[in-house]
């Protein structure tokens, strides 16, 4: 029987570092495009939105236990942020945190896109199998795009704080009830609502156009971040009415999911995530290579 030898710490460390280096290299390399075929942007309508939502609900019904495990952290983080704002004397940031947190929602749904892709292909669909593919080529561009959305979320918080400081601020509120009363019963409060909603709409529209199909596309093909973003913008530009309706559906669904202490997101987020994959499949086509 051959004897097994134990490598010395230096050789073991070198192997681990080499593996990390290869993984990092693949992640960085994946940011650029390796897909030679250019995607085709399709015309989509309300019927496509209905079909995507129906397919998303079917995916959720089929993958429910694995999906809930994958997304349960999302409402927990949202609840923690809300509690922090309340206890840290940042009451004025409570609504911007809750309203703006969905800006990074597409990142949380990455595993859902992969599950829908695998179910569509007849592959294994549990969460561990899905997440195991999100490495190297996929992880680099996904993290890059996720950092972009996170940066937009942070800028939104600064913008919301500036709007509050210019209207109801700059003295902080210790009571949520007092802040709510001043918001809805005073002219500065209504000015904050109007300006804040206008600024928030701009941020939401930007993120919607950037993430409409970009994340599912990065999982589906080695297109790289620039191509994925350009294609997502092209889909929004060709289908402005449908994109606006989809954005309204997403916003209303997330609001409904947040009302019972964010717990509704455990159902809402998976359906929207799966539906986004199917919307991508309808909005973008890949010509067969010659």
Euclidean distance between termini CA atoms: 54 Å
SS summary, helix count: 14
* Shape call: globular
Task: Tell me what portion of residues adopts beta-strand conformation.
Answer: under 5%
Mean of all residue-level pLDDT scores: 80
The assigned structural class equals mainly alpha
Number of strands: 2
- Please write the string of helix (H) and strand (E) elements: HEHHHHHHHHHHHHHE
**What's the story with the biggest beta sheet?**
2 strands, antiparallel
From the alpha-carbon coordinates, what is the Rg to the nearest angstrom? 22 Å
Strand order of the largest sheet: 1-2
The residue fraction in helices comes out at over 70%
Which stretches are poorly predicted, pLDDT < 50 over at least 5 residues?
1-30
The domain tally reads 1
InterPro entries: DUF2189 (IPR018692)
Organism: Paracoccus benzoatiresistens
Pfam family, one: DUF2189
Transmembrane segments: 67-87, 93-113, 142-169, 189-213, 245-272
Provide structural commentary.
The protein has 290 residues and is an all-alpha fold. It has one domain (38-285). The chain is 74% helix and 1% strand. The chain is built from 14 helices and 2 strands. The protein has helices spanning 9-30, 46-71, 73-87, 94-100, 105-108, 110-121, 127-132, 139-167, 176-185, 187-211, 214-220, 224-238, 240-258, 265-283, and strands spanning 40-41, 284-285. Strands 1-2 form a two-stranded antiparallel ribbon. The radius of gyration is 22 Å and the shape is globular. The chain starts with 8 loop residues before the first helix and ends in a 5-residue tail after the last strand. 36% of the residues are buried. Residues 1-30 have low confidence and may be disordered.
């Amino acid at each position: 029987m051959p004897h097994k030898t134990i490598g010395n710490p230096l050789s073991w460390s070198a192997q681990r570092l080499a593996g990390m280096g290869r993984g990092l290299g693949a992640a960085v390399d994946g940011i650029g495009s390796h897909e030679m075929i250019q995607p085709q942007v399709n015309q989509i309508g309300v019927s496509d939105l209905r079909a995507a939502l129906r397919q998303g609900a079917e995916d959720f019904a089929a993958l429910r236990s694995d999906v809930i495990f994958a997304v349960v952290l999302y409402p927990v983080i949202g609840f923690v942020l809300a509690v922090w704002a309340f206890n840290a004397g940042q009451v004025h940031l409570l609504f911007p945190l809750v309203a703006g947190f969905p800006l990074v929602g597409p990142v949380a749904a990455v595993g859902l896109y992969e599950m829908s892709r695998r179910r569509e292909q007849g592959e294994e669909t549990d969460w561990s199998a899905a997440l195991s593919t999100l490495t190297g080529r996929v992880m680099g561009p996904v993290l890059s795009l996720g950092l972009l959305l996170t940066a937009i979320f942070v800028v939104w918080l600064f913008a919301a704080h500036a709007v509050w400081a210019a209207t109801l601020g700059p003295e902080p509120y210790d009571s949520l009830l007092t802040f709510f009363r001043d918001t809805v019963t005073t002219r500065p409060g209504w000015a904050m609502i109007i300006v804040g909603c206008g600024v928030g709409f701009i941020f939401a529209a930007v993120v919607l156009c950037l993430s409409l199909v970009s994340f599912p596309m990065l999982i589906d093909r080695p297109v790289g971040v620039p191509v994925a973003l350009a294609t997502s913008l092209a889909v929004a530009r060709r289908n402005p009415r449908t994109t606006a309706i989809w954005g309204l559906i997403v916003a209303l669904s997330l609001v409904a999911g947040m009302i019972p202490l964010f717990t509704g997101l455990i159902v809402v987020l998976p359906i929207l995530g799966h539906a986004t994959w199917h919307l991508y499949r309808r909005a973008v086509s890949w010509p067969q290579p010659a």
